[in-house]
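Quick review question:
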């Protein structure tokens, strides 16, 4: 049996991956992020959780390429003097764990429901398929915040009574304008 890596590199997917410079750059960036997240304790220049090492006089420093920036803090510092690069490296660990956990949970729930629907069939299969159709009919990009602002009293009110809704895309703007909202794009 041959090596799995050499087998993958000789496959059609491996060939397409090697030919795409965009895929190669994206894989390299993902590798750097994952490496920095896994080894943040050793790679990060500072520990953002160590309160004893914070220097309040270094708070709100701009990045190193700015005129007032310092090479001591490549991406600058926040309002408490923590190094932003180190905070990003440590924060990436949390993001990766949350992302992997949500994918694993979705995998377990999706495969389980798919197996149950395929095994039982009949009305249970039809019900689960309609449930999936309903979930897929709602776009997932930003509409949760729009629905929240639309249904709650937290929508921004202007002094003349005009109501504003925060919008991240164009699909929900049509509905909001029909009921008297104006949108603010970010």
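Suggested answer, residue by residue:
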């Amino acid at each position: 049996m041959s090596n799995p890596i050499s087998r993958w590199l000789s496959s059609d997917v491996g060939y397409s991956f090697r030919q795409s410079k965009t895929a190669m750059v994206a894989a390299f960036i993902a590798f750097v992020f994952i490496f920095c997240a896994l080894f943040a304790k050793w790679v990060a220049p500072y520990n953002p959780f160590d309160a004893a090492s914070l220097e309040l006089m270094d708070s709100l420093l701009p990045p190193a390429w700015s005129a007032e920036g310092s090479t001591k803090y490549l991406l600058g510092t926040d309002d408490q003097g923590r190094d932003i690069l180190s905070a990003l490296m440590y924060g990436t660990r949390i993001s990766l764990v949350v992302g992997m956990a949500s994918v694993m949970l979705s995998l377990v729930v999706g495969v389980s429901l798919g197996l149950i629907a395929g095994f039982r069939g009949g009305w249970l299969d039809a019900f689960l398929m309609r449930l999936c159709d309903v979930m897929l009919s709602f776009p997932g990009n930003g509409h949760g915040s729009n629905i929240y602002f639309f249904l709650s009293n937290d929508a921004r009110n202007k002094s003349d009574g005009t109501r504003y809704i925060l919008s991240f895309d164009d699909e929900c703007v049509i509905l909001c304008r029909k009921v008297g909202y104006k949108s603010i794009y970010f």
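Why it works: Confidence is low (pLDDT under 50) at residues 157-161. Residues 39-108 form one domain.
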